[in-house]
Amino acid sequence: MSQKVFVSAQEVAERAGVSRSAVSRTFTHGASVSPETRRKVLEASEALGYHVNHLARGLMRNESGIVCLIVSDMGTPYRSNLIRALTQQLQDAGKIAMLVNTDRSDGSVDLALRQAIRYRADASIILSGMPDKSITQLCLKNGQRLVLINRDDEQEGPLRINLDDAESASRVLTAFVRAGCQRMAFANSEAGTPSLMARERGFIAAAKALGIDVVVERFGPTGYESGKILAQRLLTRRERPDAVFCATDLLACGFMDTARHQFSISVPDQLCIAGFDDIAQASWSSYQLTTFSQPVEAIAREAVTWLDEADPAIARQSVRLHADLIWRSSIRGG
Amino acid sequence: MSQKVFVSAQEVAERAGVSRSAVSRTFTHGASVSPETRRKVLEASEALGYHVNHLARGLMRNESGIVCLIVSDMGTPYRSNLIRALTQQLQDAGKIAMLVNTDRSDGSVDLALRQAIRYRADASIILSGMPDKSITQLCLKNGQRLVLINRDDEQEGPLRINLDDAESASRVLTAFVRAGCQRMAFANSEAGTPSLMARERGFIAAAKALGIDVVVERFGPTGYESGKILAQRLLTRRERPDAVFCATDLLACGFMDTARHQFSISVPDQLCIAGFDDIAQASWSSYQLTTFSQPVEAIAREAVTWLDEADPAIARQSVRLHADLIWRSSIRGG
DNA sequence: CCGCTCTTTGCAAGCGTGTGCAAATGCTGC
DNA sequence: GCAGCATTTGCACACGCTTGCAAAGAGCGG
């Protein structure tokens, strides 16, 4: 291992002919330094290549500037897009993102939070998985702020950011009905994530209000392949559905591909399809999927501004955002 | 801002009735502690919820355990997949990833590296953009290790991981020729990334060796939309190409969609298409794209193991990996 | 019981910062 | 020139940890 030799404030001070505190103050926002010393310090730092050691600063200030993102399936379009938005806005707010991958096991969300504590992260943002209550308590006790995105946990303390899943689901149903669809289906994964389940329940409830039955099928993880399987199951039923709401766009893409290529079903003429997330592929001309756009920028903004808010005791605990309906041609009419 | 109150080794020591160094040694691999004290320390830590402060540890050891990933377009399938592989393998090696988004401006790669220095990252891995030479020098001078993925820079010091782009390009040409294609085209973005340019040059060179001309078109950023524009340009030529190698899969998907839906061209009957990266969408049944799989796991492994290697002076500087040809039905024959 | 070796333990220095406090400096008005 | 004040500067301590060093303890053969 190479010997790291970073230049310290001490060396800068010596070169600039001032005290070390002067150097520190030059790089501390709102500290009192004369323009003259400031100039000398900046000159010396530039010459030596000095950079404030944020580990030491974090140690002193008891505030590291680190925010931990806890994510699984980060290769997925929706997740990666959310990560992009979050990292960007965190950087704009002068913070830095630490990324923890929780693909391996389920308990790894807890491990991830422990990691966040070790690095004294100012906050953790959980995009997937569900932390054990004891761990979130540990985080909160340590003064670490917590944001749960699309997790809808009932715990006190964290900020919970969610979408109006039920309302969206009900709008899909309306669209299906207007298009003259009769036999409704809902295609879901087996992940059981709160937001996915909320869409399912919302769709069923909206249908029930109109006296319509919904066939529900669930399979596997929330991905393209599962969409294909779900299509095989739903489209081989005696009473083949003529409208299906897929819990996510990835499921919808798989569903649509199988409907078209394996069953030679025409979309939207014989089958209307809706998705959720508005991933990039939904707008590709092979899909033209009607879907709801996850307001990733707004989600990120809510999370980041909340982290800067003064008193966690007064801060709001829950935010519900709206997902716009993006109308494309996978549903008739419009 | 809430008052963070983390429990320190001092408190654990008091509760366990031992010295603070005993606590430290309990959590230091390879230090000498008796089983009895170890037990007492672990018990007390558990009860108090103690976690070693990695900021302080990094300060002392001069080794933070942080590795900085510098990325643009992280919402993109290939990039996000590489990030996934890297974070996972870094975690397995006991390190943690810090993610810096460089979408904003071009100089932001330099800003990102400065950020890495501030947090005393042990290393930085650059997936996109090109750092200024003065900055990489600064990093190396500070003992920070550097990995460049698919950047093919000629600088000394960093590890450069690249693929055999030229060979891949030549294999595509062979496949096109075998399929009986006559009029070759290469579709590229205007990004000018070394790997993209290597594929372009390799394809042209392989064609020239057989006395075949290649029409080259370049447009915009490296994404789906650019693929559509490129198709419009290439497919409206008087001599319409019957084979096109797209520099990436995203370009290929856009190209294929436009060829089919706007020009009603049948793939692969009238037009053969190849891509590069093997993103998830390439295997979707709407595309079935013949392409080369980026060996993301191998790339990540090379990067992570290199970081653990003993002496940076002896360490190798460059690695060339092979991209497997994934044969699907966007090229005739096979 | 002594001398020897080996392991375990505590002390204290040091990592690179931020910041309260008091001293020093500069400026203003008389 | 001097008192009065605001601003700037340096000192020294604190943050939480690792680790070299020496002292203490444990085990053991003679």
UniProtKB/TrEMBL annotation, chains A, B:
Keywords: DNA-binding, Repressor, Transcription, Transcription regulation. The keyword Transcription regulation applies. PROSITE patterns: HTH_LACI_2. Residues 7-61 form the HTH lacI-type domain. SMART domains: HTH_LACI. GO terms for molecular function: DNA-binding transcription factor activity; transcription cis-regulatory region binding. It comes from the Bacteria. It holds the Pfam family Peripla_BP_3. PANTHER family: LACI-RELATED TRANSCRIPTIONAL REPRESSOR, RIBOSE OPERON REPRESSOR. This is Substrate-binding domain-containing protein.
